[in-house]
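Hi P.,

Sorry for the delay on this. The queue was packed all week, but I finally got your sequence through. Input first:
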Amino acid sequence: MTPRIGRISSHLGGVALSLTLVACSSAPSRTPVSIVHAVQDKAADGRFDSAWDAARTYETFNDPRAVLWYERAAATTPWSADNPQAEEALGRIWTHGELMHGDGPNIVQGFALRASPRKAERWYRAAAEHGNPMAMLMLARLHRERGEAAAALRWDLRATIYHHTSSESSRLPQAIAPQPDGTLHPLVVDIQRRAQRGDADAQVDLGAMLETGMGVPRDGVEALRWYRRAADQGNVYGAYFSGLLLGRGRAGVTRDVDAAAGWFAKAYAQRFYLAGDAYWRSTIKPPFWTFD
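Then the structure:
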């Protein structure tokens, strides 16, 4: 009985989404019927590129069906580095409830959907957990705008490690700097406490602060230890950042590309596309900012 109920629930969920898209549309679809037939016939092959092209075409015409096709693109198999691109696009759309509009004379300008911060965060998180750098930055912004300092800090730190430079225009070091009397910032103390208790995400946060010297004294060896502890719990950023730190060889850590490759393989097995061979070999190449 359970599988059948699951299928019914899934079907009803799809119907509900379709009705929501129709109800939220600011104007009737203006996608020409001939184009609708063309893109949907092409997308019948189930490939990512076809679903992506359909989504982009509908979005150009301010047509809410773009959302459905981005979701199909995100779910295409076999999974590849392209899937997170569709996840990030869905996060962008739901952030403001706005579709990307074309410039032609027959294109209707305006909003097509109601914004949904919950959906935006869900899709950005999916993209970020698959390695999309823009999604990391957008999650930091979303949480910062809501006043969620700890969550914003987490994604700022992760974007900082990937981009080799401080996120949010170098405001991050000041945001978690020690107090005037030398005591650690309350956010840093909380991260340390949660990391010691086994919180894998907090362990990655602490490792990132130790690697960069933000909020705590810089110690790459200790950073690597915390990354590895997180990775051992299945945290994809723990594995990926272990690879980056070993591959770049900084903050007192001896460069070891062979060891780095092993950690990248663990992250890639979790569909973290930046850990793919071509990506990580490019990312560890100097020059890059070393936080010195």
